[in-house]
Task: structure prediction
Amino acid sequence: MSEDVVQYTALVIFVLALTHTFAAKQLERLSHRFPQHSGLFHLLGEVEVVFGFWAIVLIMAMALLQGGGQALAYAESRNYTEPLFVFVVMVVAASRPVLRTVIWVVDGIARVLPLPTPMASAWLGLAAVPLLGSLITEPAAMTIAALMLAPQVFRPQVPERLKYFALGVLFVNISIGGTLTSYAAPPVLMVAATWQWDSAFMFMHFGWKSTLAVVTNATIATVVLRKHLGSASAPVAPAEAAVPVLVVLVHLALLAGVVLLAHHPVAFLGLFLMFLGFTQAYERYQNPLILKEALLVAFFLAGLVVLGGLQGWWLQPIVSSLEPVALFFGALGLTAITDNAALTYLGSLIANISDEAKYMLVAGAVAGGGLTVIANAPNPAGVALLKRGFEDESVGAGGLLMGALGPTLIAAAALLLL
Result:
């Protein structure tokens, strides 16, 4: 079977997957209208399931076109380190000892800021935690920020349009907030070694600009939300035991180890098994681990890895043909329909690409990282953790796009004009 047929088939399935993400909220609503089929509609309405489902369809199609052996060989040739890492770091970062420690620190800082405590806490969750992602990686920052902000911002009492705006700010700030270093943002990581960009280079060319945009976005969002902000901390159950310092330190050490070994799945999975054993041994200091949510996110990202691996034949010519400024806007737009890390990886394969084009490609990719669920690897984690606060317990792709437009323009202006 011709390779062209497989490529066109993969493109059609990719387009169907994109269409499915925009239809997910409507499918979730159908689960309420047709209760006899609610299970099926609910499954198909889970945004985190979309790309994993269509990746399975792709592998089945490849098996029919090329044979089962070649289809399995392609699936096994993909690199699944990122989905595995996001799964592990989500579970560890969301554990009660880690989350309570971060909330305790944020509450302490919020009390000394010259703002009402709810406003200060929301601002820190939308600004400081995304910037912290440059140290602890973007997926960990997304997990912590989402769980912190959920009881305060993403709750039924807050108007839906404001929640989508806050979600857009969070996603954009996470995407650009990881650019202060060379290892925390997936689209930067894809090119850092090839182009010899270290953390000093990133801060000098990207970091300070991103910081200004993050602070601006967070400040605007906090002012807009000020009348609707709830308590910054999730309620503590009466029987919830205080977490000993030693248990907190072990959790933080394991989280640090996972982050440091983010590109070595055998090592960080080993640490994760130790984490699971430790949480079982000290179960009274734990909340239920978010294994289901993390697995769904990993499934989504693994599906994106499989589907995205066959899109380079049409994406790379577009990227390589654009002049630097056009490349910035092209990358910003393409990021909305492809993972931004995949986009910058394709750019890293272009021979003799100029320094200006390198900057514009990465800047556009990170600026557009909040426009859709698939635009940046941590976004599915945010959706999984925050969707219960939205109508129908589902995040609509159109609502997210509209909510992220303003913050995206601010990020784009900072990275393009400063």
